[in-house]
Write a structure and sequence with these properties.
The chain is α+β, with helices and mostly antiparallel strands. It has 9 helices and 10 strands.
Length: 228
């Protein structure tokens, strides 16, 4: 079923579920353009200015990435919003007005979710997104391990929590030739939070390690499932 029919499909699935003891998972899973599973990673552009800046700095084809999860109303996407932090929307909202060429979906097969007693398990990526990261603020300093997240960091940390290292962090200095706006953003945020003295900020920020969406996409652990 195409995504423009997802609202109708979701309503039909929920009505059917109301007459049984468990959700109609086969119907719910048919709502996407592909045979989706919780933990699938969906990439797109044009959601956050900060993501677009990092995309440009790392020469990545995509800027923002979210984690699919199962819900009684159909698939949802947990992602990092620049204003709201780690939040979620229905899948059809995440790809609203996009064509199939405007987004891509990848899967970590070793962490792929499975069915148990007719129900779709969330899997480790979705569980991390919901139980650990959900509600955390946007990481305007692009730092690892500071209880805030930017787009690529959410995926990196979720996979690491399950024992899979998707990417090797790189220094901001290695991206500086591609784009100076990212460095300015991080330096401004570091000054504002008083995380470093003015004389030290420049060198500290230059050596800061960053995970990029482009590095995630190059991981051998990822398999593209849409478009095929």
């Amino acid at each position: 079923m195409k995504l423009h029919g997802m609202i109708v499909a979701g309503a039909v699935a929920l009505a059917s579920s109301a007459m049984s003891d468990e959700p109609d998972w086969a119907r719910l899973m048919a709502e996407a353009e592909w045979d989706w599973r919780p933990g699938d990673l969906i990439f797109r552009n044009g959601l956050n200015d900060a993501d677009d800046v990092l995309k440009h700095a790392s020469d990545s084809p995509w800027a923002t990435v979210g984690i699919l999860r199962a819900s009684s109303g159909g698939p949802r996407v947990v992602y990092v919003d620049e204003t709201e932090g780690v939040t979620e929307v229905m899948l059809y909202r995440f790809v609203e007005e996009l064509t199939p060429e405007d987004y891509a979906v990848y899967r970590i097969e070793s962490l792929s979710s499975t069915l148990e007693d007719g129900q779709q398990l969330q899997g480790p990526l979705a569980r991390y997104a919901l139980n650990v990261a959900f509600g955390a603020p946007f990481d305007d300093q692009f730092q690892l391990g500071n209880d805030a997240y930017y787009s690529a960091e959410l995926i990196y940390e979720a996979a690491m929590s399950a024992g899979v290292k998707l990417a090797e962090p790189v220094t901001l200095a290695s991206l500086a030739a591609a784009d100076t706006e990212l460095g300015v953003r991080i330096l401004t945020a570091a000054h504002a939070s008083q995380d470093c003295a003015s004389a030290q900020c420049g060198s500290l920020v230059a050596g800061q390690k960053i995970v990029t969406v482009d590095a995630l996409l190059r991981s051998d652990a990822l398999t593209q499932v849409f478009p095929e």
